[in-house]
User: Fold ribonuclease Z from Postia placenta MAD-698-R-SB12.
Amino acid sequence: MNWSVSVLSTATSDTEPTIVVNFESGKYVFNTGEGTGRSWLQSRRHWRKARGVFLTSVGTQRCSGLAGVLMFCADASIQAVKVMGPPGITHYLASMRSYCKRLTMSVKVMEVPSAPPVYAAGNLDEPQPAYTDENIRLYAIPLHAVPASPAEGENTAAVHGKRKRSPSPDSSFKRPAPSDPAAPTTSDEDLEHVPRPLLERIAESGFSPLELSGEDAEEWRRMVVANMFPCSPPAEEPIKKRKQKQKDVTPPVVAEAEPQPVQPQVDPIMYNAAYAHRSRRLPPFAHPDSGPATLCYIVVGPRVRGKFDAARANALGVQGKLRALLTQGQSVSFMVDDGTGNMVERTVMPEEVVGPSEQPHVTMILDVPTPEHIPELVASFTENPFYARFRSKAEEDAKEYHVHAVFHLCGPGVLEDERYKAFMRGFADGVHHLISSREHGADNATFTTAAYSQLRLNQLDPDMFPPHHYSVLPRRDLSLVPGLPPLVELLQHNRLVDVRPPRKPCLDVLAQQYDHFHPAITGSQGVLLPPAVADVFRKSRAKVKQLAAARDTSKKPGDDVEIIPLGTSSTVPSKYRNVSSTLVRIPGWGSLLLDVGEGSWGQLARMYGDDIDSWTSGVWELLRDLKCIFISHMHADHHIGLAKILAMRKLMNPPPSQPLYVVGPRHTLVYLREQSEVEDLGVDQADGNGIITILSDMLNWKPVRPFWKMHKNSEPYVDEERSQQAAKNMCRALGLESFTTVDVSHGTRCYGVVVKHSDGWSIVFSADTSPSDNLVIAGEGATLLIHEASFADDQEEMAEQKAHSTCGQAIDIGQRMDAQNILLTHFSARFPKMLPVKTGPPSGRGRTLALALDHTRVKIGDLWKLDAYLPAIECNFADTVAEEGDGEQEAATVSW
Ligand SMILES: [Zn+2]
Ligand SMILES: [Zn+2]
Assistant:
């Protein structure tokens, strides 16, 4: 049984390491940082066999691509996925309930206990694997940060021992999800464990999940996840909402017409209650006293049986079914002629006809975020005799297990820590070490298709299409680091490591074939445009020059405001376009982000450069200047990138001097707080430069029904006055006259926004919507309308069904609004490259229409140029697509 490991992405400015273990019958994904789905798309590998996602820690760094990956899996018809991680992973997943759900797939969450297993000296028994199937046994070792002891010289074992005893109320063993086949079967007794008082509390009208703690809270979170991913697709909603009277204490009931039991082994009352209360906040989560755990994984492949020696079996007279028994390791006895006509019994042992079996092959993924995690890592591989066999130079250990490759995810200061180098040297010399470290690695482009396309457009207009920031040189060459083991290399995306049969790491040929970006930037010739493309570029530039000469050069309000589309694809990313986000930069005032789909941080980092030695330049400077993030609605392509941006902002040292306002629907405000319990995102911090949230309902252009009043007591952030006061402060910080949300038509609560500046210009952003009269009225006379155009003109019916707009409808809205400029964006993934525009130019004197493209940097006053470049951009796409050998991408068929 052959198997391999592929590296989907590594630590760069826009990706985190994602490693995939590949077997014929299944794939196992280790970590899903932001952009994992898009990396997968770029790698051209399919994910239909994905069985599980194994996370080394909880939080944005390792998990912010999880929602996208799960939805990609569901859309690829995968029916069941396991998600494993340290304590907090169920809470994290449950916090996504308002935007990540799929009725056709089940997700089983398995939390690995936080406390390291207790090791008994001399006990060679294998620890219990965290996960097993026919391909792998997976061991998970939790690590914690152990602050340097004031008493220098305290040995690691002592530190480790102390850790083991640390109390951890929330870290007690988490019962795996009930229908996990690897878990002990759930008995009726288990189902009855919910104490009666809890069931009674759930039935009370004033019940809130916030009251729950301990095992009740864990059970609640598991039920929330079970609701997000029920086992089988019910024909209708599993539970009918029944309006409860104030004094009705009956718990919510299962609909009579429920097609079949969903999650048959879960407690139905808890399951239904979690559904009924899904819009309420989750029970509070806190890490154990020992701090958040990071997991290291050991992946052990199957033990392959030796070859059956048929000739020897014939000679011994072994026939038929007896051969099968021997291959299964059993001895067999049968009657044979002894050569003299007498029948005698003969016993054959397996080793007489079956060659020696081959030891399992092994790989490891070690996540060591800080030097403070090293003591527990070292202790685990020395104190536990079973784990110690994987890190050993002894021949007898090598005969038992063949450790082929170790993946080290090293945080700052880890790799060059003497203790870590000594740890690495403890492995056998033939082990390959692959290092992911921002301090050492290059900053290669992962999304090479988009990077290459941008490189070509840069020749059309270097200001409007700046090349992505990247670096192909390692920041610090590993050959300069003394004391590392012999076979060490930097982890690069698209590496392939065959584990059985073992081969040295090599480049994935498929990825190499389609990477035009790196050969272009490292070759001597640079980017060579085919003559026909160069010709169209030349003509476009000439046209722009000609138009510029004829234009009125007087400055109008808003001309200098910069618009930078960061993501222009609808629902899913493509190799060419990321999901929704638009940056608006107001000179002298600051910046706003209109929606932030997954990967928006990475898009910013590639645009402005992520110099990890400086907290004041490039993307960090932009982040300091960012004063508002507007979230239009809860569809995944519009807001999943929010937490990553906040987490990166929280890292800045010194911190920003001003607050960042996040305007969004209540669900965003809730999940931000729930995720903040796992990882500090700076929400509600007291020192005045953190995240201040504003409920978008409260800024609507005309009064709306007072949503969320019922949560007012437990959620102060839904208070109307509080939101309006914060909005005033935000307007003051950005020089705005007003910031008004507009309810648009999208089948779910969705707001567009009208931003009016005191300098006399305004921007209207439609968000996702069918043609909306509200927007026309509220946005009248806009300087710029940024409108979605998901579909082409001949797709009106589909646009209506999906509550989106066609290109022509968007232009019509702009005309009726009398917008001076119209920028179309949010193109369906059916058009990963360019939306076919058949509509003629918008009527109206001087009105400009342009199509957005990721990473275009254009001032409102220069939008006409982007329009003039359209033939060149289309020609570039057509040509790049031919080189990429692309058909319509797989993602064009999926729908989230
Ligand atoms: Zn959308
Ligand atoms: Zn939407």
About this structure: The radius of gyration is 30 Å. Residues 152-191, 233-264, 887-896 have pLDDT under 50 and may be disordered.
